[in-house]
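Please decode residue identities from the backbone states below.
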């Protein structure tokens, strides 16, 4: 056979997803890699054990199964190396611990995933790292916030719940001039629709719990670094003793095979519903960066090649006192949409987004923010379910 890797380099996304992290010739021709369960790994002799002169040395340092997934993620990210961790939150916290020390300062986007903020305000603070939160729309203006001890700039685009866009290239360029590491939570877009390392990011973070899994039953995170930061990330990962399990790695690798076509369906259905919501009188605003009406649309259009299945809208209400009651009435009337915190799976979900933690990027004032994860159900059924939510909120 010809070299498959050479062919894949110029292939389409679904072709690549079907074949990356896949080496049948290594496993007697079987299409999928075996699930190798391991803690102890034996060495042929004492010298090999002393020098660790073999590819696998202990279960936490990787198996053929976890390596297959890491190789697939590297192929998508264009990264020098990837580590697996037990959750999306761990994928954020491991690089923070890898690149920050006591006395350092970090800049974190204010529209960040709330558990990331909690980690910064508790664990990082206790470890002697100071944190400031910045406006997601700051762009190159972030230079005014960088201090002599700033070591890391964390980005997330779009932002959690309100989907603010960031000029990742401009922020990265400024951060690098000051010797800062740039990290990015890229879970929303996945490396199919945005490749952080191509825009100056040093460490790309992904909650594989979401679209790579696709079935709401796996917790895992991936952390991918460029060559300049890979060794330090790998060292921290090993020192913390974190690893993804072979069973979960196998399931994530399996999920990757269909991620492209699933994302296409998520995108199509979500844009259909988002545009429909824009036309409704009971909606104050739709928060989706792929809509021309959204303030960050130009950045999204410039840098991203697609959009995924999660966005928010602002439910129009008459007074702030009605925010919670109207939001709860809307949610409680839903039948198909489940009420759950995660997203990226096959099923649609809805939550009343909590935004009281914001310090710079304030919550919308027109009404409560309802976040929707649009799954793989038929759009007509999802619309009918949303209509029931609007009717219940109006009747309150």
């Amino acid at each position: 056979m010809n070299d498959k890797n050479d062919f894949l380099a110029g292939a389409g996304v679904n072709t690549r997803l079907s074949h990356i992290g896949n080496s049948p010739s290594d496993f007697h021709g079987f299409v999928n890699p075996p699930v190798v369960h391991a803690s102890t790994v034996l060495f042929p002799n004492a010298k090999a054990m002393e020098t660790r002169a073999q590819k696998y040395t202990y279960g936490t340092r990787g198996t053929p199964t976890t390596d297959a997934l890491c190789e697939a993620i590297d192929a998508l990210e264009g990264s020098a190396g990837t580590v697996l961790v037990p959750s999306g939150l761990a994928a954020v916290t491991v690089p923070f611990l890898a690149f920050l020390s006591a006395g350092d300062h970090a800049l974190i986007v204010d529209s960040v995933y709330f558990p990331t903020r909690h980690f910064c305000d508790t664990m990082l603070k206790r470890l002697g790292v100071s944190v400031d939160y910045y406006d997601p729309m700051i762009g190159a203006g972030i230079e005014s916030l960088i201090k002599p001890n700033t070591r890391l700039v964390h980005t997330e685009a779009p932002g959690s719940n309100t989907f603010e866009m960031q000029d990742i290239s401009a922020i990265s360029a400024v951060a690098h001039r000051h010797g800062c590491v740039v990290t990015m939570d890229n879970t929303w877009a996945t490396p199919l629709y945005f490749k952080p390392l191509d825009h100056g990011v040093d460490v790309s973070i992904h909650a594989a719990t979401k679209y790579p899994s696709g079935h709401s039953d796996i917790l895992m995170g991936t952390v991918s670094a460029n060559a300049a930061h890979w060794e330090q990330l790998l060292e921290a990962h090993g020192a913390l003793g974190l690893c993804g399990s072979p069973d979960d790695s196998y399931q994530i690798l399996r999920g990757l095979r269909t991620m492209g076509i699933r994302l296409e369906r998520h995108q199509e259905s979500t844009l259909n519903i988002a545009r429909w919501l824009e036309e409704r009188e009971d909606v104050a605003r739709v928060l989706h960066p792929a809509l021309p009406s959204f303030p960050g649309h130009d950045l999204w259009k410039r840098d991203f090649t697609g959009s995924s299945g999660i966005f928010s809208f602002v439910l129009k209400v008459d007074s702030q006192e009605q925010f919670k009651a109207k939001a709860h009435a809307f949610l409680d009337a839903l039948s198909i949409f489940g009420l759950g915190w995660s997203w990226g799976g096959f099923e649609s979900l809805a939550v009343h987004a909590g935004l009281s933690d914001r310090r710079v990027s304030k919550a919308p004032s027109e009404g409560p923010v309802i976040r929707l994860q649009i799954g793989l159900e038929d759009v007509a059924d999802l619309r009918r379910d949303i209509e029931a939510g609007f009717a219940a909120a109006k009747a309150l």
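Observation: The chain is about 40% helix and 15% strand.
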